[in-house]
Design brief:
702 residues; alpha/beta; Alkaline Phosphatase, subunit A; 3 domains; 40% helix
């Protein structure tokens, strides 16, 4: 027989038709006439098929070639495979778009780890999607619902979380969660449009991927779907055994980071593993504020600069043209500032101290008060100010994000937006924080309130020998007698201060900067291990709570009365509870009747007015904002202070002016008022306190 089919006519219909139809190569026939191809009555089987082919329009293939069939089959299979791989391609592709520079900068080990996690991601989603790819059956509907729900949740939460904080939700973030359901959504602010949009988009994408799989994946034997479901369960369990990078580098695909986070939380909740996390602050719900009209003494903007772990004794508080301490650059950049030499934080931990700075509350405030108090941004926004927070502090460390997540911050720039590889403890370089603040400055609309928060002085500290005038140094042996370690610490402060000085000069060079009051302090001090074998948070001795403070304003931006008040408080005993009242007074809302209820909960007084805070001030690193694992607290009034550490069953009293090293215990007889205040504020001695979670009613309702 010839290799090619002849033109098919009526004579081809018959016993030879099947052989002709199985030929390997294409034969195209002209349209036959009715006479050439009469209908075959009663024809069945191959003859009927041939008759139908003969009745086809001209140019239609009589038989598909084997090569064409192979190509079509290959295309169908490829489409099915791509449909099954689409979830992983979507996740990895989106991740590469967001952080390709970060991922390609990883070392070889972490790059290999990321590729491995991407392979696990591909298998994980492909198996589940394959099990859901039939159109009918109970199993396929269950698998389909699971795919849409799980993929939509994972993708939506991770994308929304990263859009807010510059990192993916991880084990560190969810461990303090009060409940698994809240952790599933990362405690995200669902009322924000961009968060809700990410969640909706993820569900839409998941639904589209499922629909595509059901159209494109070929239906094999029924048994393959159950086998795929069983394999998926095995892979899902196996992923929990694979190490995941979840803190700083996050060199794992975002879906696996999420799975590990929720699995770790479940193990803690079920008592399988233990967590020593002591964070007590959960999602805040700041009270709503009425819109008010600001009435500052002068039209102005306000900038709050917060340093990290900065002792007061290594910097010049007042301007000193011959300053030889560690803040030489900012000293020169703010020559007209009002310095405060006796300012103290109410805690030596950042979260507790920051809560007081921004809310004005005592550290001993109740849980309800701590979780509902407005912050400085809320007050400013209610008064019509634009608001900003540019920070090197990790929002994910001990869920620091809960302090700011629901506040009225219009412009937020966090550490991972500044540097995707920022260290978890020290954050990005303080110089980069300054650059981010300068870039954001031009976007602020006057009047505005901005907060810039540095972080590099925090241990393990950022040190650069090119900017280290204090020599020689010893970086590893903190001690009150080790002058080399003190030099090292001062070099770290010097480097950070260069960033502060740069920001001050940049601000003053702008028109809006000429109308801006700058308030400066540190969240807490830092120990040379004078009373505690740690850097901070272990005690409320002066090395850990005495901090620098000053206010700088161009001529005419503060009133003469305000200038007189600030100048008169240079050496007065002042506390961080005075900072928010000062900010509110500068914003022109301290006397606002609508804020009277919130103002009554604050014990401090504006530094811009003559009044001083004279009542006993509670000091504590145990609060409903954060709980240090070693309880410690104190009370201070004037120059007298009582202190109790986690090993103490009684308070010790010192006079910080007469005895700045806090060495001589004055005893209860000479500090009776403070001892009475301490017993009223704190239910038991710290040595018997335990955990705050076991003291649900603790705290001053104010």
């Amino acid at each position: 027989m010839n290799d090619r089919l002849p033109t098919v006519g009526a004579e081809a219909v018959g016993e030879g038709a099947p052989a002709l139809l199985d030929r390997a190569e294409l034969a195209v026939a002209p349209r036959p006439s009715a006479e050439d191809a009469p209908p075959v009555e009663g024809a069945a089987g191959p003859a009927a098929a041939a008759s139908r082919l003969l009745a086809a329009p001209a140019g239609v293939a009589v038989a598909r070639p084997r090569r064409a069939r192979r190509r079509a089959r290959w295309r169908r299979r490829l489409s099915g495979v791509l449909a099954l791989l689409a979830p992983a391609l979507w996740i990895v592709g989106a991740d590469l778009v967001r952080r390709s520079a970060h991922l390609f900068a990883l070392d070889r080990t972490h790059r290999v780890g990321y590729v491995g996690s991407a392979a696990v991601t591909a298998v994980f989603w492909a198996l589940l999607l394959y099990a859901a790819s039939r159109r009918r059956g109970v199993l396929t509907h269950v698998a389909g619902a699971l795919f849409v729900g799980l993929f939509g949740l994972l993708l939506g939460v991770q994308n929304a979380f990263r859009s807010l904080w510059g990192a993916y939700l991880s084990l560190d973030v969810v461990l303090p969660a009060e409940s698994v359901p809240r952790a599933l959504l990362g405690d995200l602010p669902l009322g924000r449009a961009k968060v809700l949009a990410q969640l909706v988009l993820a569900v839409v994408v998941a639904t589209g991927l499922l629909h595509a799989a059901r159209r494109l994946v070929r239906r094999r034997r029924r048994i393959t779907r159950p086998l795929a479901a069983v394999a998926w369960v095995a892979v899902a369990c196996g992923t929990l055994k694979i190490p995941a990078s979840y803190q700083t580098l996050q060199s794992t695909t975002p879906d696996l980071i999420y799975v590990h986070a929720l699995a770790g939380l479940a193990r803690v909740k079920l008592g399988i593993t233990r967590s020593d996390r002591t964070v007590m602050l959960q999602r805040r719900s700041p009270a709503a504020l009425a819109r008010v009209s600001a009435a500052p003494a002068r039209p102005r903007n306000v900038l709050l600069l917060v340093q990290e772990s900065l002792r007061a004794d290594v910097v010049c508080a007042d301007y000193d043209p011959a300053c030889e301490l560690a803040n030489r650059d900012s000293n020169a950049a703010a020559p007209g500032r009002f310095g405060f030499t006796q300012l103290r934080a109410v805690a030596s931990s950042t979260a507790v101290s920051a809560t007081t700075l921004w809310s004005g509350l005592r550290p001993t405030a109740s849980r309800e008060a701590t979780h509902t108090a407005p912050f400085v941004w809320d007050y400013a926004r209610a008064a019509g100010y634009d608001t900003a927070y540019i920070s090197g502090q990790s929002p994910l460390y001990n869920d620091f994000r809960f302090l700011i997540q629901d506040s009225a911050i219009e412009h937020f720039v966090g550490p991972l937006q500044i540097d995707s590889a920022a260290d978890f403890w020290t954050g990005p370089r303080d110089s980069a924080v300054t650059d981010a603040a300068i870039a954001e400055w031009g976007r602020l609309k006057e009047p505005f309130l901005a907060v810039v928060h540095y972080s590099n002085i925090h241990a393990p500290r950022v040190y650069d020998r090119r900017y280290a005038p204090f020599q020689p140094v010893d970086r590893g042996n903190p001690s009150p007698s080790n002058e080399k370690y003190k030099n090292y610490y001062k070099d770290v402060v010097y480097l950070s201060d260069l960033a502060v000085g740069k920001l001050l000069r940049a601000v003053r060079a702008t028109k809006s900067g000429q109308r801006t009051v700058v308030v400066y302090t540190s969240d807490h001090g830092e120990s040379y291990h004078e009373h505690n074998p740690g850097d901070h948070a272990g005690t409320v001795f002066d090395e850990e709570i005495r901090v620098p403070g000053w206010i700088d304003a161009p001529a005419g931006v503060v009133s003469e009365a305000e200038a007189v008040a600030m100048r008169g408080k240079r050496d007065a005993l002042l506390w961080h509870v005075d900072v928010l009242p000062t900010l509110l007074d500068l914003l022109g809302v301290w006397d606002e009747p609508a804020f009277a209820g919130f103002r009554s909960a604050m014990m401090g007084h504006p530094l811009t007015r003559p009044e001083l805070t004279t009542a006993p001030v509670p000091l504590s690193n145990v609060s409903w904002a954060w709980e240090y694992r070693y309880p410690n607290w104190g009370v201070m009034q004037g120059s007298q202070k009582i202190v109790a550490r986690h090993t103490d069953s009684a308070f010790h009293c010192f006079d910080v002016v007469a005895d700045p090293g806090e060495i001589k215990d004055l005893g209860p007889a000479r500090c009776r008022t403070l001892f009475d205040a301490g017993r009223a504020l704190f239910p038991v001695a710290p040595a018997r306190f335990g955990r705050l979670r076991d003291q649900p009613s603790w705290g001053d309702p104010r």
